[in-house]
Amino acid sequence: MTTIARQRYLPVPGQVLVQVGSRVEPTTPVARALLPGEYRILNVAGDMGIRETETDKYLVRKVGQQVKKGERIAVRRGLLFPRVCRAPADGFIAASGGGRVLLETLSPLYEVPAHIRGQVVSLRPNYGVVVETVGALIEGVWGAGGESTGVIKVVTERADEPLDAEDLTTEFSGAVIVGGLTADKAAIEQAVHIEARGMVLGSLDADLRALAAELPFPLIVTEGMGRIPMAGPIFDLLKKHDGSEASLSGKTSMRWGVVRPEIIIPQLGKSAPPGRERRVLPLDVGLTVRIISQPYQGAVGVITDLPYRPQEVDSGARLKVARVDLGDEGVVSVPLANLELLRT
Amino acid sequence: MPLDYRVESILVADCGSTTTKAAVIDLVEGQYRLVTQVEVPSTVETPWEDVSQGVEHAVAQIERASGRILFDEQGLLITPERAGGQGVDAFVITTSAVPPLRIVLAGLVQELSLASARRAARSIYADVVEVIALDDATERRSDEERVHLIQQAQPDVICIVGGTDGGATTAVADLARVVTLACSLLAEGETRPVVIFAGNADMRLEVAQIIGEEAPLKVVDNVRPTLDIENLSPLREEIEAIHRERKMAGLPGLDMLNAWNPQAIMTTAQAQSYVIEYLGRKYGSPKGVLGVDVGGATTVVTVQLDGLSQQVIRTDLGTSYSVERVLAQVAMDDILRWVPFPIEEGEAHSLLLNKSLRPTTLPATYETLLLEQALAREALRLALAEAREIWPIGQASPYPHLSPMFEPIVGSGGVLSCAPRPGQAALILLDAIQPIGVSTLVLDSRSFVAAMGAIAGVNPLAAVQAAGLGGLVNLGTVIAPVGQAREGEIVLRLKVEELNLEMDVPYGSLEVYRLPSPEPLTLRVRPQRNFDVGWGPGRGRKIQFSGGSVGLIIDARGRPLTLPSDRERRRAKVQEWLWGVGA
Question: Can you give the pTM of this predicted structure?
Answer without folding.
Answer: 0.88
